[in-house]
Amino acid sequence: MKLYGSGTSPYVRRIRIVLANTEHEFHNLNIFEGEGRAILAAKNPALKIPCLEDDGQLIFDSRVIYSYLLAKFDLPPLSWDQENQLTLIDGANDSFVELFLLKRSGIETNDEQLFVRLQKERIASTLTLLNEMVEAGEFDGWGYPSIALFTLIDWVEFRELHPLTSLDALKAFREKHIDRIEVTATDPRG
Ligand SMILES: N[C@@H](CCC(=O)N[C@@H](CS)C(=O)NCC(=O)O)C(=O)O
């Protein structure tokens, strides 16, 4: 099994954590240029990571990769509530990625721009709800939704994308899991 990704992507890190005890090759690519981008284009024309290759089968998108792994290892499917948790996490994560790419592109933004406002509103709305869900114990276990939430919050801290003011449950949730071996082994800080 081969996993194509980068050492910093929160979507890739979810799958690396899931695969912590499964033999696989991790291909750490620079997806933005050069050989890394060429490999990415050859594997996934959607030009996004993660991408999994197993027995000649390519799988795109972290959620589909997770479904593939569940089927392969005969594990129980996620509940609809867990699927919704993932959609909330992905909503925030995608908006953070878009804003991060704007910043990396050197594009000046302000909160009045529709695109920026929509991303920031989605981030505020999803993070507030996720914070409440953590307080209510909905992320007490260390299943896939918790792993996805952790990799999001840790990436937000790593890239300094949001102060997480008043989101104390999210900050405590990150602290609770920060010393796990599969977490330290995939730390984007190296
Ligand atoms: N829905 C996708 C999102 C993956 C994604 O956005 N990955 C980012 C890296 S964190 C990426 O490949 N970005 C490249 C781009 O947007 O061009 C998934 O869950 O795998």
Explain what this protein looks like in three dimensions:
The structure is a single chain. This protein has eight helices and four strands; from the N terminus they run βαβαββαααααα. With 190 residues, the protein is an alpha+beta fold. It folds into two domains: 2-72, Glutaredoxin (3-Layer(aba) Sandwich), CATH 3.40.30; 80-185, Up-down Bundle (Glutathione S-transferase Yfyf (Class Pi), Chain A, domain 2). The protein has a four-stranded mixed β-sheet, sandwiched between helices. Strand 1, helix 1 and strand 2 form a beta-alpha-beta unit. Helix 1 crosses helix 6 (144-159) and helix 5 crosses helix 7 (168-177). Residues 9-11, 31, 47-50, 61-63, 97 line the site of glutathione.
Task: Spell out the helices and strands N to C.
Answer: EHEHEEHHHHHH
CA-atom Rg in angstroms: 17 Å
The CATH architecture classification of the largest domain is Up-down Bundle
Shape: globular
The average pLDDT is 98
What ligands does this structure carry? glutathione
Major β-sheet profile: 4 strands, mixed
Number of folding domains?
2
Q: Major sheet: order of its strands?
A: 2-1-3-4
Q: What distance separates the N and C termini? A: 23 Å
Quaternary structure state of the chains depicted: single chain
